[in-house]
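Training component of the fellowship. As part of building independent skills, the fellow (R.M.) carried out the full modelling exercise for a liganded target. The chosen ligand was tryptophanyl-5'AMP. The inputs are recorded below so that the supervisory panel can assess the work.
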Amino acid sequence: MQRVFSGIQPSGIPTLGNYLGAIRNWIKVQDDHDCIWCIVDLHAITVWQPPAALQQQSLEMAAVLLACGVDPARHILFLQSAVRAHAQLAWIFNCVARIGWLNRMTQFKDKAGKDRENASAGLYVYPNLMAADIHAYHATRVPVGDDQRQHLELANDIAQKFNHDYDVEFFPNIEPLILGPAARVMSLRDGTKKMSKSDPSDQSRINLNDDKDTIALKIRRAKTDPLPLPSEPDGLADRPEARNLVGIYAALTDTDHATVLREHAGAGFGTFKSALADLLVEKLSPIATETTRLLDDRAELIRTLKSGAERAAAVAEPIVAEAERIVGFLSMR
Ligand code: TYM
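Fellow's submitted model of the complex:
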């Protein structure tokens, strides 16, 4: 069985973008892969997180992932900070990756914005830690949203350079799994911007814990254009907001843009938005209810994460120890 690794930052309640672009695909691959799911708190602190909030968000993220269907018995769910191997391998990768490669990362440019000089050094080397997350397990498949594509290419470049420099075949090539019609869910206020936990406007996103009325209101207010829906996907080409809502509908019904448009061709947004809001409520409310139930038993969540961390460390430690031996660190064992 191929080993899968993926991660999510505990930097707030996950959005519909996280769910459709990533988490839902995590659940789908669990049937025929050996999976490692990581709550990446080391990545989260690359931008400021109040400590008490980070703790709470880490627990909430565990609860949401379990509520979405992550199976901690057959697979591994854990916190990145609980397994030291990630930071250890990341340091080696900091010395393998080239500054020129990092300078090309569009996410750093987006996140650092105009005040680049004031961004943390951690934000800059963020992709090296992400490469370490995956390679510490010799994982070969990584389900993510489209925004992570460039980071995964870098993870492959790092592995190749490591293998080449040390003349080994140690780190395997990884294959991104970027799946479905919602691999890039856009903001509800601006169809050219990604839906994001960190957007200042809450109206721009659906949060996985939004209640029924909030979901309906956000969808009703979502930016659209005055035209009815076309009958073919080509008709969505210059209509980013319309394309986004159709993509969300398609992902939630496990179909594609063409199927949704065949059903809804000619419909105005009043009708389509109301169908979409109903569908979202139907799919998301059970997750919110289950998340609340799981958060009631904090001790059980901690037990799950602890067991996950122990099992994750058992896989990662020998791989990272071997990487250290290859690099030439003298072993005292
Ligand atoms: P994060 O926490 O930003 O997002 C988690 C996952 O959600 C996907 N995603 C989206 N997909 C579609 N549309 C959107 N609007 C949208 N927003 C987010 C992301 O692509 C991601 O799959 N760097 C990663 C976390 C990470 C990781 C890893 C992932 C750390 N180490 C190793 C894979 C493997 C991130 O920022 O995720």
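The panel noted the following from the submitted structure. The mean pLDDT is 97. The first helix runs from residue 16 to 29.
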